[in-house]
Amino acid sequence: MRVLPVLLAVALLIAPATAGFAVAGASPATGADDRPAILTERSPDAVDPLREEGPNRGADAVLVDASTVRQTGTEDGTDGNGTTENGSDAPATDTWINVLSAPSDSATSVSIGHHRADLGPASRIETARTTASMRTEAAIAHVRAANSSGERQRRLVAAEAEVRDAEARLYERQRAAIDAHARGELSDRELFIELAEISATADALRTRLDVLAALAAETSGTSLETDSLAFRLSVYDGPVRSYALETLRAGESPDRIYVETREDVAVLAAIDADDGEYLREVYRGDRWDRDAAGDADESERALERTLAAYPRVDDRSLSADTLGTDGLTRVNVPFEGGRLRTFVSGGDGDVFIEHQRRDLASFSDSHRRSTTQDGIEVTVDATYPGGPVRVTAMDVESGEPVSNATITVAAGDDDSVEVGSTNAEGRLWILSPDRPYRTTVVDDPRVAWVSEVTPVTPPRIPPPESGNEDES
């Protein structure tokens, strides 16, 4: 498996990395050029309660992430540079809302990339959307050109079947891209371009289904299953991809994005600092039974499974709603401090997609490490790999925040990499590496750092009818 922290700009161009691994040649789908990655796009008319309205704003930055998962908690004590640590085993519950994650028996790799803006692949995504739209127009024209009601019915059924086949190809295409990325055969840039084209195509197919449904309603004796098919096409999106896209639409760059893949599994996470939100989306294709048949109790089981998998969300939930059809159910649960969406496979299936939006303020300081050096008190509130880490710098003498200080991160034996600057409150949110790391605050000429910050074990959702949170 690869864990790739990625910074995306308005079409990302990857400059030489300071650490990481070699990537094989470009895939046939992306070509061998240096055009950057751009994240997926949804239809602007789509309604998504997990999607934020209005433009997002990000900043160019660099994230250092790491290899070899160290899923160990912190311990009380003081290290050689005077760092103290709060290692409570009973953290504030908001931090420990469960997460869907990759199986725990996974090796990881790391890539550190410096990115700059470039308009390269944007036209490629628009080309994919335009091509799909043109095919939609051709399909609709073919239906409308039928000479009889019977012929129109046959053409409508054939057009729906074509969309169904296209969805199956999108599923295989996404799986192939994730697997190639996990094997090191597809770069992070190439992966995002592929995901973007898949999402754009899925949106166009959903639009085609809307028109086909309207035409079927006008044609006596015609019955199509467009609702279930359109619902299945909705899985090719998520809050992290939407966030990146919206920043691009606003003409700015999305902030850092954490990427983790293994066979048929992808984990994406991001921090929307302007809106104070942590975004997370996880796809577990290994848990999706695409042949499962739905039944009358499917939605109720999906809701029960979701609330059982995320008990602290259930404790804080304001309401919940489900929408399901044909062996697939979506569950939306707004809760105090955030919003959760899951997709649950039918039959004896389980949660295979997780979307989370969470207020950064809901993450506690239960795994805190701090130090005082050179007149600066530095505090690092650690979390699980890919989770949000709060770094705070305060002036010891004045008690005031140290703003505009440069923050660097060094994972393991890697070199330090600049990840951003503190704001007016002396704070910067970063995404956690997956191995012990050092965080340094540079307020020239003063320097202070916290060493050996250890990411904690992710609070994984338990398997069905199990209390074991070390889910795989």
What features would you describe in this structure?
The protein has 472 residues and is of the alpha+beta class. The protein folds into three domains: 2-62 and 113-247, no CATH class; 77-91 and 364-453, Immunoglobulin-like (Sandwich); 264-362, Double Stranded RNA Binding Domain (2-Layer Sandwich), CATH 3.30.160. It has seven helices and 20 strands. The protein has helices at 122-144, 149-182, 188-217, 226-233, 239-249, 298-309, 311-316, and strands at residues 2-7, 12-14, 77-78, 84-87, 115-117, 256-262, 265-272, 277-284, 321-325, 328-335, 338-345, 351-359, 367-373, 376-381, 388-395, 406-411, 417-421, 427-431, 437-443, 446-453. The strands form four sheets. The protein has an eight-stranded antiparallel beta sheet. Strands 3-4-13-14-15-18 form a six-stranded antiparallel beta sheet, with no helix packed on it. The protein has a four-stranded antiparallel beta sheet with strand order 17-16-19-20, with no helix packed on it. The longest helix has 34 residues, at 149-182. Residues 257-363 form the DUF7094 domain. Residues 369-445 form the Fibronectin-III type-like domain. InterPro entries: DUF7094 (IPR055520), DUF7096 (IPR055522), Fn3_arc (IPR056397). Residues 32-55 have a biased composition (Basic and acidic residues).
